[in-house]
Write a structure and sequence with these properties.
It is elongated, with a radius of gyration of 22 Å. Helix content is 22%, strand content 28%. The protein has 360 residues and is an alpha+beta fold. The chain has two domains: 219 residues, Aminopeptidase (3-Layer(aba) Sandwich), CATH 3.40.630.40; 88 residues, Immunoglobulin-like. Bound molecules: zinc ion (ZN). Zinc ion binds next to loops. The site of zinc ion has 6 residues, from loops.
Length: 360
């Protein structure tokens, strides 16, 4: 994660929707290509994020999990699994709990002449209400293409584990270059790089999964499988052969792929029905964002004073209906909904107010 914070966050949550939606493409693929087979061994660098002591170096710390430790644990398992594949050489930027600058990490990758750099991270948000996985790639040319194509493959692997997929994204900084340092430094050294934000350490939906036995190894297996598929690798030891694996490429973009900076354009609600005795309200919500997918929604029954936990929005639909239960004793209930795109930008509906007699 990019923002350092120490505040612990423990919440018991339940979800309306537990179905995990598989990441659907924002941009449609232009062609199907074979994983490329290089005559020389592929050289990749695994970069366990953070490391060392002090602010920023530890990464996110929540629920007893420290980012710098779990990134190293995952990186070690990933390197171990990839070493069982043929035609690949794997390096790690760090194998111990050491402080390393982003420039040093990119310089290391440059020295070993890396074909691809995979920076391993776990996430956290200031609001503590987001959950799921995301991939950051460069906004530029073939670096975007490679990161996006790999992102498609790895998010498919992650979704199999039950992780909600936020998507593959870009972010430009104030200088007009890639915002994230590791991506920016690698790209200026002519190496594609992705940041793999596997899951949120400050949200129980993800943390409950991370805590299950062997989950970090499952993540390492998902990452290794995605890398092996992307490069069309074979492993006699593992009995796997991805040399015939094909994937749809996004193609090289015509221009810079900029992040969405605006909230969803549409966020409207209708109350289809309500039952005064039970407090059940059937709400229909329509939301739309032409630049990035809507991935979460939430609702309020008290006019926006409090909101539900973020629910998963089926990004293939613009209109969905759901039940909101108004607890008895709520005075002046009114329904307000929010929709969030995958850049976490939020739009809020106009409140639906019931007739004056809906006090119970
Ligand atoms: Zn991080």
């Amino acid at each position: 994660m990019s923002v350092f914070s120490k505040k612990p966050c423990k919440r018991v949550v339940s979800y309306l929707f537990t179905t995990v939606l598989i990441f659907s493409l924002v941009l449609s693929p232009s062609a199907s290509i074979n994983s490329y087979a290089e005559p020389e061994p592929i050289v990749i660098v695994i970069d366990p994020g953070h490391g060392g002591e002090g602010e920023g170096n530890t990464g996110a710390i929540y629920n007893g999990i420290t980012e710098k430790d779990i990134t190293l644990q995952l990186a070690n398992a990933l390197t171990n699994e990839l070493s069982k594949y043929e035609n690949i050489t794997v390096y790690q930027t760090r194998t111990t709990d050491t402080k390393m600058t982003l420039e040093d990490r990119a310089a290391f990758a440059k020295r070993v002449d890396a074909d691809f750099v995979f920076s391993i991270h776990f996430n956290a948000s200031l609001e503590h209400h987001f959950y799921g996985s995301e991939v950051w790639t460069s906004a530029f040319g073939r670096f975007f293409q490679k990161g996006f194509d790999f992102g498609q493959i790895v998010t498919t692997e992650w979704s199999r584990l039950g992780l909600y997929q936020k998507g593959v994204k870009t972010r430009i900084g104030n200088t007009g270059r890639d915002y994230y340092g590791i991506i920016r430094h690698c790209v200026s050294d002519n190496m594609p790089c992705v940041i793999l934000e596997h899951a949120y350490l400050d949200h129980s939906y993800d943390v409950n999964m991370i805590r299950t036995s062997g989950f970090v190894d499952k993540l390492a297996h998902a990452d290794a499988t995605a890398i092996a598929k992307y490069f069309g690798l074979r492993s006699e030891a593992l009995g796997t052969d991805y040399s015939g694996f094909t994937y749809n490429t996004i193609g090289k973009p015509a221009g810079i792929v900029r992040q969405d900076r605006t909230e969803p354009e549409v966020c409207n609600i209708k109350v289809l029905a309500y039952d005064l005795s039970s407090g059940n309200v059937l709400v229909e919500m329509t939301t739309k964002d032409s630049e990035s997918p809507v991935i979460y929604f939430s609702y309020s029954y008290d006019g926006g004073q409090t909101f539900s936990l973020l629910q998963m929005w089926d990004r293939n639909k613009q209109t969905q209906s759901f039940n909101v239960r108004v607890p008895s004793g709520t005075s002046n209930p009114s329904i307000v909904c929010r929709s969030y795109n995958n850049y976490e930008l939020m739009a809020e509906s106009i409140p639906f107010r019931f007739n004056a007699n809906f006090n119970y």
